[in-house]
Structure prediction request, 512 residues.
Amino acid sequence: MATCVVVLAQANRWSEPYDKGVKAFEAGKYADAVQFLERAVAADPKAAPNKIIEGVFRTDYFPYYYLALAYAELGQWDKAAQNLDKARPTLTRQQTAKFNETESKIKLAMSTPSTPPRNPAFDNGMRQAEAALGARNYDAAIRQLDQLRSLDANEYARAGLGAKREEAVKGYGGQLADEGRALVQNGRFNDAKGRLVLAEQTLPGQKAVADALGEIRRREDDYRTHKAAAQAEFDRKSYSAARDRLQQAQQAQPELFAAENLGARLNEAATLAARGATATPPVNATNGTPTPPGNTPSNASNTTPDPKVLDAQRDVRTAADLIRQGKYAEADAAYASAAKADPNNQDAAAAVARASKFKSLRDRGVEGSKSKTGAAAAQQALVDARNVDPDRFAREGLTAILDRVTKSTGDDPLQVTLRHGLLALLNGRAQESIAILEPAASLDGSKAASLHAYLGVAYATQALSAPKPEDRTRLKDKAVEQFRIAATAEPGYQLSNRIVSPAIIKIYESSR
Prediction:
């Protein structure tokens, strides 16, 4: 009786997990099947047909056959092959066909070079790209997909991510076009132009983009026409006509009108027209010198200037000289002194506010650049600081820090610089565009045709509006120099006639 109890206990140790393993295999639960079958083999490694369970009860016991099949389904080819060899002596006629099929599959898999496991960073990047696409954040999806292509170009192609990128490009181009047209309808032409140009670069050939850019170009042409006519009327001392022309220029392109500070000129024309001014300007009651139009003293009897006002004016002039020397700390102190002496001095107040904003953004960006997790916020703070004061940004050596942070976010510093420089140019801020593009152009030599070409456009824009002939010549020479570098870097390079005026394209063509 004791012997029977021992034999029965041993049989139960292999038969129960074996039965569960076979059922798990037939249900397609291969990992579970392996677990149960390995327990059965550990209890009794001897496979056999009609193996006694207890008394007269028997069952076929083929654990190695099922282990081989289960491991093959799991792709664990070495273990599958080992179990096939063990199963071979015990095969039944019914098992032979499946055995041969599995053996062929194992041989093929083991003869094929194994594909190295994919970089976990690639899988994580794919999930981020998919999430960005799902959220219609197409710009982020494009950047993420470009990073994946740089990380592993072969895996990028195998995963078919090129099609995903095309989907993101189409979505982003459409988004930019919609935003640009909405901005045109709201009268924000400079912002609209930036969006539309980026839409054209992202997804060329959109008719809606071409139409909207054409509308902006027409308004800019009208603006320049009315502005030039206003100056001609001023020269003829026809102030009513000058006022009307300036008002038309303001209606055509209010943002350019404000950027070029023509509001003061319009007030002057309106004042002179209301007075019925003649060619002889009013005379200063204090010293008998002509008073500039629109600046007739409100109280001619007040002949003693306020000493604090004079001190403030002196400090403003000193600060301007210090800025030309690159001495920004001293200039900040001089402007602060001027603002304290004369709170009504608008130049001092604006300079103090500008310096304060610049330093706050600069400090935030520099501090954030020291942390890997704060790279994106640091990049934005530094870009904003450059927009506030591009000359100071370059002189304080912040360009290198911004480039380093930009690289850490996966963006191309050159492309980011070009984008911001182009946006400043399109928004009528040619000097700001020069301050952004020039440091990058000097570092990059003659490799980037677009960067040098649009730096040349910024110089040419200034040349066409410079009041002095010598300034026009100097700025045009600088434009031609940049245009020649661009043409050398990329023979056949063309400026876009959608965003560059015919006069500047003519200078570009002649420089080649």
Observations:
- Residues 1-9, 278-303 have pLDDT under 50 and may be disordered.
- The domain at 2-111 is CATH 1.25.40.10 (Serine Threonine Protein Phosphatase 5, Tetratricopeptide repeat).
- The beta strands are 48-54, 57-61.
